[in-house]
Amino acid sequence: MKGKLVLVPNTLDLGTDCEVDLREVLPQAVIERAAKLAYWATENAKTTRALLKRVDRLVPLALPLQQIQITELPRPAKGGAVARGASPDLKPLLAPALAGHDLGLLSEAGLPAVADPGAALVQAAHAMGIVVEPLAGPSSLLLALAASGLNGQSFAFVGYLPVDTASRAARIRELDALSRRLGQTQIAIETPYRNDALLGALAEHLQPGTRLAIASGLTLPAGRCETRTAQQWRSTPGPALGGRLPAVFLWLAA
Amino acid sequence: MKGKLVLVPNTLDLGTDCEVDLREVLPQAVIERAAKLAYWATENAKTTRALLKRVDRLVPLALPLQQIQITELPRPAKGGAVARGASPDLKPLLAPALAGHDLGLLSEAGLPAVADPGAALVQAAHAMGIVVEPLAGPSSLLLALAASGLNGQSFAFVGYLPVDTASRAARIRELDALSRRLGQTQIAIETPYRNDALLGALAEHLQPGTRLAIASGLTLPAGRCETRTAQQWRSTPGPALGGRLPAVFLWLAA
């Protein structure tokens, strides 16, 4: 009897100055389930241990932290391009499930395997006949979409935009045209220290009437979401996002 | 001082034979917040009262249910095409927030304003300077994406496919080609009683090597997610989805 691959949602406060109460963002049953798992596959063992300590304060861990096996996923870094071609052998990571133990998959933020490298492990689990069970939890992308008031019936997540100025401008214009043609909300993310640069580029290169929403720090006390036209962002930029809060950028052409 | 528009997530069990414990899918703080709200804008007053009764069993409501004001959003029905042009006046719905009270927005399932008509109210709130606060909760679309093992770094939600057989086949081929060109996971939903028909059409019209995932009843005991190639779905269809469980369909071309 195989164990399951359990997709465990994380909080959205990593790298911020704020540590939210887990009960603000995770269902009680998810916290209890996390406290029971003895095997984990994660992006980062250190932040996983930090989360498990927070779990332990609410629901005592079934095993001492030192006895919980945490194995890191192979890189690339979160949000990088999907590796095509040669992929690492993920079977060793799934060994606990093959041996009958439930195995938790955890991302650095929100749902694992969304906007991070975890999908390859989920794919490998399906290929090996391991049942995949996703636990309910927050996704910053969809919280941002809900809060934006933009079209929630047709949307696309496009990941990171190019860093190079000219390529980024071209990509913004391309995605603005796509949004207009399909009536589709476009969703992008950025490394926090580049948030203000991306906001500036979007305000500059989107058509003036395109509605642009910035959601930052959602689920945190500092969380906010503002939706204005690109023209309005240009004329009244508002306070800087700063380099600490995770942000989600969304736009819908008029 | 205006109140906020609070986006309250719902469970994913509407219309199924199963009523999950709210603590499986909603954070404790969200249940507590819902128990305090005296004003709601929702798709359906009856199902909203049913949810509030479930809340009340865990956290007593601040007001008797009869005194809680529940106002229904104007149609169109959930998931229908986005109305363009003439839009109803939503200001009366936002009157409680303008008068200083927090106002809850609730969908029939999952996050409000995603794959439902709530976005127009959120847009109106932004236009009137009402702060929008999304509370953490599940989205069946992203739980399905996480569980599918398909590309979680580039994906699009396309809503419902056409019902007409020929139009649906053409749309499936179009979205398969788009998925191949962009490496983008395509996500669609269907009214439950048509789930098996859609699965059959996808298995028939997607390219044989396209990976197709069906996630049904996620967060319910009967929940499952299977990912196989269209060719495999054709040759071994597996048990019928039946007409009761909500399902999400996802595919990624090879």
Question: Which tags fit this structure?
Answer:
homodimer; about 250 residues; alpha/beta; Cobalt-precorrin-4 Transmethylase, domain 1; Methyltransferase, Cobalt-precorrin-4 Transmethylase, Domain 2; 5-stranded parallel β-sheet; 10 strands; about 35% helix
Determine the most extensive contact between two protein chains: A-B, 66 and 66 residues
- Please give the alpha-carbon distance between the first and last residues of chain A: 54 Å
Multimeric organization: homodimer
- Amount of beta strand of chain A: 15-25%
The fourth-level CATH homologous superfamily of the largest domain in chain A is Tetrapyrrole methylase, N-terminal domain
Number of domains of chain A: 2
**What is the overall silhouette of chain A?**
elongated
How many helices of chain A does DSSP assign?
Answer: 9
What is the chain-wise order of helices and strands of chain A? Answer: EHHEHEHEHEHEHEHEEHE
User: Pairing-aware structural class of the strands and helices of chain A?
Assistant: alpha/beta
